[in-house]
Amino acid sequence: MLAPCRQILAANAGDVLPKCELNSIDGGRAIDLGEFKGKVVYLDFWASWCGPCAKSFPFMNQLHHELGEQGVTMIGVNLDENAEDAKAFLSQYPANFTIAADKGEQCARQFDVKAMPSSYLIGRDGVIRHVHLGFRQDEGKELREMVEKLLAEKSPAADVK
Amino acid sequence: MMKLGRLAFMTIAFFLSLGVEGCAQVAPWQRGNLAKQHMALEPYPMQGSFRSHIYGSREAASGISSSEGGGCGCY
């Protein structure tokens, strides 16, 4: 029934990043996704109850550690209904990258998250380049290669100069 | 007679349509409660199959719970 509406909201590879604002997990400064233009963004939607999410955290930590300085911004967007669940998860699986919350589920709707976890690879030009649903251990290598490929691309701002 | 059939049809349709209200789209990120172990049809599959094995052998009712073997419990 809602299929036509979902079509409009859907964020697929090749689409421009939807406008949406993320909240900080402990009520701090909001994060606007627009401010990362010129950087490669690895946006991951996760929740504490999702098993593969727990598996993806060590991978994302490693990616942040190894490629963070080269211009990859990792953002883990928590979609737990209860913020305490997210905190308990984070104490068990610590993240060294940015963790944000999505109060009101606005971003999840805008991105039309189809699975947990869902990872969106966003290029320097602010275009979604790849959507990855779920996470399995052996998919890390492929994701890493894609991130490296996006990093190798020139920033659109650099062309103007 | 025709009128009664029509009324019966309308009544059934009415009660069926009440069920439509129970349908709701649950977004993937809203499935936290559904992901809990006790929401599974079979929360403990190992324990479940063990129990059905005992049931099948002790009740001499093999076949009723689609398990193989006879009533002796020696599969």
Going by helix content, strand content and strand pairing, the class of chain B is mainly alpha
For the termini of chain B, the CA-CA separation is 60 Å
Tell me the structural class of chain A. Answer: alpha/beta
Q: How would you classify the quaternary structure?
A: heterodimer
**How many strands appear in the DSSP assignment of chain B?**
0
If you average the pLDDT of chain B, what whole number results? 79
Sequence stretches where pLDDT stays below 50 over 5 or more residues of chain A: 1-7
What is the number of E strands of chain A? 7
Label the overall shape of chain A.
globular
**Alpha carbon gap, first and last residue of chain A:** 48 Å
Q: Helical content of chain B, roughly? A: 40-55%
Which residues of chain B form runs of ≥5 with pLDDT under 50?
A: none
Number of alpha- plus pi-helical segments of chain B: 2
The shape of chain B, in one word, is flat
Mean pLDDT of chain A: 87
